[in-house]
Amino acid sequence: MMRDKVIKSFNEDAYERQVIAENLMKIIDSQTEPMVISIDSDWGTGKTTFITMWKNMLDTDDRYKNNFKTLYFNAWENDYIKDPLLAIFSEFEKQIKEEEGELKQKLDKAKQTIKPIIKLGVSAGIRMLTAGILDTEKLTISDYNEEALIKLAGQIGDLGIKEITADKTNRAKFKEEMFSYQSASNNKIIVFIDELDRCRPTFAIELLEVIKHLFDIDNFIFVISIDKEQLAHSVATIYGQDMDTLGYLRRFFDLDYKLPSIDVRKYIDIKNEQALKNRKNVELFKVFLKEMFIKDSFTLRDIDKTYYYIEVLLPLIQEFKEDKSYTAINIATISYIYSLLITTKIKNPTLYKKVMDGKYDIKEITSYFKPIDMLKYGEKIIGGFHPIPLTEIISQIVPTYLELNFNIVNGAEDINYINQKKYLIGLGEEKHSIFNDRNFNMLQLFRNNNSNIRNNLEFLNGFNKE
């Protein structure tokens, strides 16, 4: 399987976000009080990359590495764990397990204090006391006389008070031990929490409560990356749509920072350069991809996912591997079809499957695939084409390919006996001549194994990228 290129260092960042992390560090460095910072940005806009680079900066940069200890916690990957405190402390312990001596002992002492905190709460204790009778789902008041109810209420009250008192004591012990650990380490501790907005709503809320009430410890800083609007929607599923969920969330954060938006075109240019470096005949492919990304409002995450599949495909595309005498129209055709189908696979997988299965109405599906606008490039020559003739070719590619694909997949035509001129595309009056380098015969995409787009895409379908 191909691996994602994980950007970990600000040295690889083209968006000058390092200054954001450095400025936030100035704020963090200026005080000792506990702090919770939200890094807010829409889904798929680079939050994870930003906090990964920020953490790397603190771990490797001489300005920070001796004064800060960092941890990373992916909330979404841990939301199957019932208790958020257990989840976050387990990750804490795992990432600093190499520490020994006094620091390890202090961490172990803190670990002992969390055990009572994560035991059954008051409601569970009530169910145990009443042998399950006072499970709120099963309570039957008529089974009790007045005297028995008064006695039971007293027992429940006593149990509740005892548990609350014990809980406060245990929380205080935990915070004391964690502060002792931090003091012994002589570092401020920064915990980066990622993908909170993707969690179960109850887990997300409980994790925020744990941070607010158990980690309000001097020199502990939490940096939480969120899509705040999405998280607010999740909270609303618990507390109701009429609640001021953004106001509710605000109480958990001391600082709210909104990441500035990224220039998507610049991002695509960088990804093109990385993925298509040293490839042949790819100028049009780069341009077509960019225009389709913009037209269909791809997020950065969508774009990254697309390039994952492109890197799988590239070794299979003969036209991009060698400088043979492919005609310009040949290159334009395969570049456009690959761009169109790969981006459709990401943005509309149901439609993509219909194309691959040949289960579509030709007119209807052709109208869906609106051509990209190349005329905005003015007089610029792209891949050997002026935008006007390139637009003429593009207008022929999609309907011709979809008709041929439909007929071949559904057995309506035998590829060995199709009229040579039926699926020609090209320029000018001579475009219907089979002996003309100003045209291209779409049949080649099905007859020639080295140029068979369907075969390559069917192979690609065996890969999965979530």
Automatic annotation (TrEMBL):
InterPro entries: KAP_P-loop, NTPase_KAP_P-loop, P-loop_NTPase. Residues 17-278 form the KAP NTPase domain. Pfam families: KAP_NTPase. It comes from the Bacteria. This is KAP NTPase domain-containing protein. It comes from Clostridium paraputrificum.
